[in-house]
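[job 0412] stage=fold_complex status=start
inputs:
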Amino acid sequence: MTSTVVIDKAAPTRPVKLRSMSRDRTWALRWSYFFLTLFAVFALVPPLYMVITSLKTSAEISAATNPWWVYHPTLSNYVELLTSNQFLTFFRNSALVSIFVVTITMLISVPAAFALARMRFWGSATLATGVFLTYLIPETLLFLPLFKMFVAFGDLTGIQLINKWYVLLVIYPTLTVPFCTWIMIGYFASIPKELDEAAIIDGASWFQTLTRIFIPVALPGLIAATIFAFTVSWAQFLYPLVFTTSTDQLVLPVGIVTTLIKGDVFAWGQIMTGALLGAAPPLIIYAFLMDYYIAGLTAGATKG
Amino acid sequence: MADVTLRKVVKKYDDVEAVRGIDLDIADHEFVVLVGPSGCGKSTTLRMIAGLEDITDGDIMIGGDVVNDVPPKDRDIAMVFQNYALYPHMTVAENMSFGLRLKRYPKAEIKTRIDEAARMLDIVELVDRKPKQLSGGQRQRVAMGRAIVRNPKVFLFDEPLSNLDAKLRVQMRIEIKKVHQKVRTTTVYVTHDQVEAMTLADRVVVMNHGRIEQIGTPNELYHKPATKFVASFIGSPAMNFIPCRLEEAGGKLHIRITDRLAFPLPPKRAARYQGVSRTDKLLLGLRPEHITEASPHAEPGVENFDAVLDVTEPMGMETLIYFPIDGTQVCGRVNPNAGAQDGAPLRLAVDLNNMHLLNEVSGAVI
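[job 0412] stage=fold_complex status=done
writing structure:
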């Protein structure tokens, strides 16, 4: 009898966790918003500052006013940059380099990845790892030997590549090809083997299997690799700084820094404007390709 | 359309022999099913016929030509894969026509063939859909359609129904049989499901450990298995194997199972087993349907005995019963009205006209 009494007493005092799941979720949501806000502030304040500064005159920038407010907004920085041939040359050089580098990278790394992922030849696995390892060598270690190589190449053949924007077309792929090949190997490896076997039985050659099955199916991966290659070549700073010096051969990041900083005079307004304009193309490309990037095109290939 | 011949075909992966010398003749229009447990080499054999695997030794002939070194696309075969392997970015029609488009068939011809195959497989309204919009059964139909439009010499099926649920599997099984009745293309079909093998095949090839155990029609395999493996693999529930030996008693050959249990053999069987050594360790092979409830009328070759049932499994049209004989669990099939109950005794009859006698050591059926 006593025991029953104890149980009767205990039951109502036991804490009842009503809707505990939804409460947990609410907290998870609060925390995620807290951190999202934190990171958004962290990531967005610099560009915001750039926008604010780009709308100011040099006088206002150096004046001791509130740096977060524009009292006399002006577009003069934009007008000046966009009408200066120099800046447009940098922009053109950057665009040419990036487009060509992306093209070269894709033409090399997609077939390479296909061969390494699917054609199972002797040593293919080792080679695949080797490709990735080359990516791990930092450019700060490579630029001196590379420079010496191009000098030697010029002495030997008489073809002078240094201080030409197109020398970057040879150099950037050393950064982009290994990584893009690695990404594409991963994507191709995730395509079920039966898919290429079906294609082979249907009468497709290796090349047709690649172009008509693998590339369309691995499109999200291809776009990821493209974005990567573009970003790397667009934002690369060290190599163009070393390999190009004449003003008409410079790409955007180096051009802005070398021409808008004269000795210890910083043309802050124009630097900020140039940086903003330079950041625009990658942003636009991300915005357009994001849907593809996320879309899972492999759904429905096999069961599930 | 063509016949397929395998001559001493061997496949080695490094040191592992996956297929150990297979001889097989598949006639034109024939539907042959390779069946066996996983790792028995059936899929490897099929892939060698397809040309997706090199053969280590031997010859494979399709339509009389040796195709050992012929690439898959020139073998004029079509294959249906277990996971369908549809091209996800193409519509059903594009999937089906891919091979024809690669071979630059005229558009009108391609359309005719797709329409024909789609009608045959009842997927006409699906031709503009993408694979991910289809159910498993529909995807498998499309995969079959892709094979049919090619009008190849040989169809190869690699466990095509394994990914489907049980009900759909039965339905698609009938579908495949119907398709074969219409197009009559030589077909090699791989499965691990003996029911699929029995129901679909003109002839079944039972494989085990990279070798062929037996080739025969479904009925031959069921009623005249050559080895213990075939006897146990074909049929569900599986055949019972009860340790026994032969002995002479009163001038008649008996089969002795335990000290207290022995049956006289019917004359035909006695004649057949006369030459078997009386000391050999043997197994009595009995299918569950040959162990039934005892009937009041004596029949030649049918012997009665008593057993205490362990477990009964009512299946509706019959009841499966399980009981021990000297430590061996034995399964029988009785009428649902026979009064079989868990733990209760029941008088049973064993039909020795349909018995099998196996050598316990070699596993061979005597």
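[job 0412] summary: The radius of gyration of chain B is 25 Å.
[job 0412] exit 0
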